[in-house]
Amino acid sequence: MTISMYSTRTMLKALERKHPPTTFLLDTFFKSVEVSAGAYVDIDIFKEKRRLAPFVKPIAQGKLDERQGFTTYTFKPPYLKPKRVIKPDEVLNNRAMGDTIYMGKSPQQRAAETLMKDLEDMRSMVIRREEWMAAKALETGTITVSGDGYDSEIDFLRTAGHTIAVGTITAWTEDTAEPLTNLKTWKRLIQTNSGLVPDVIIMGYTAWDAFIEHASVQSLLDNRRIIMGQIDPKMLPSGAEYQGDILGMPIFTYAETYISDAGATEYYVPAKKIFMGSTRLRAVRHYAAIQDLEAGFASVQYFPKSWVVEDPSSRIVMLQSSPLTALHEPDATLCAEVVA
To answer: Whose CB among 13, 14, 275, 296 lies 3.0–4.6 Å from 202's, allowing a Cys bridge?
Structure first.
């Protein structure tokens, strides 16, 4: 269509569909933030043995007891460096979304707006990566780091029995399944191995559908003489949906997605799995030092940087961060696949 300079035209309000990053897993489990001045993070883990004091006659010598030691694990948080290029023709010849042809913004104004938008977009990307790391730590007890210069696995040494495959239980879609018994068993397992009582369940949507539709769960909810479960869906601003309480634990569903490195749309909480854990566990968002001379190796979560390239003339904008979502008490979490 040819545009006539003499025709009256109206720019309707622009519609920009953005998906701001959600941080439900980070906010639920990884509440603490620690920034390091170095490139490595040391984590001391102490697993107390629940020993009893020995019986000794009052006239006998006291029984010598050995202190329990701790183990130090060293992790190197991976590095994130998204960057973009702002070219002169992009701010000289192109209007911003929603602007009219004669809006009157100067190239300097458009360049500044583009820089701020790029920084906002890249910060969203970094936060999504942090939420992804939190999801993988909760799902497998490990984080696989793969990319430019990376091909490794960060293992938090969660007990193997805390990652449960559907083949080891009856899938919740089967009539013979016992989802309530499974939840009770896993709750006790976490308490036994970590000393913390789990107080939250997060389900993928397929897992939730199988759970709420199972006859044993429906029977529990219909029996008004047993106050063990209540379903009361509510949307939360962090991207999750509160579904109700069961066995003294709130149940949430979390259907937020991200685009994987392979370009596929994935759920943070896999649709057929559930996470169970204690929100009182020690789980930390660690940030290593920014390895940049201009930053002075600053101890910050995020470091924005911008500079001009002389020929061809352009401006580079970059955001740096070195995050690691670490489980200091990995056995206070559990992941189970409940649908085949």
So the answer is: 275
Residues 283, 29 contacting (CB under 8 angstroms): yes
Amino acid of residue 169: I
Q: What is the residue range of 182's domain?
A: 24-45+73-337
* Residues in Cβ contact with 20 at an 8 Å cutoff, skipping those fewer than 6 apart: 124
pLDDT at residue 233 in the model: 54
What is the rounded distance in angstroms from the CA atom of residue 245 to the CA atom of residue 252? 9
CA distance 125 to 98: 24
Q: How many separate domains does the chain show? A: 1
Residue 172 lies in a domain: yes
Q: Is residue 193 part of a domain?
A: yes
Residue 18 lies in a domain: no
Q: How far apart are CA 64 and CA 49, in angstroms?
A: 16
What distance in Å separates the CA atoms of residue 21 and residue 124, rounded to the nearest whole number?
A: 6
* Pairing verdict, β 229-235 and 314-320: unpaired
Find the CATH number of the domain harbouring 155. 3.15.30.10
Residues in the chain: 340
Distance, in Å, from the CA atom of 136 to the CA atom of 169, rounded to the nearest integer, reads 22
The series of mean pLDDT values per 10 residues for the chain, 340 residues long, is 51 56 93 88 68 74 66 83 84 58 66 84 94 97 87 89 94 96 96 94 95 89 49 64 89 92 94 97 92 84 90 88 93 96
Distance, in Å, from the CA atom of 21 to the CA atom of 258, rounded to the nearest integer, reads 9
Cα Rg, the chain, nearest whole Å: 26
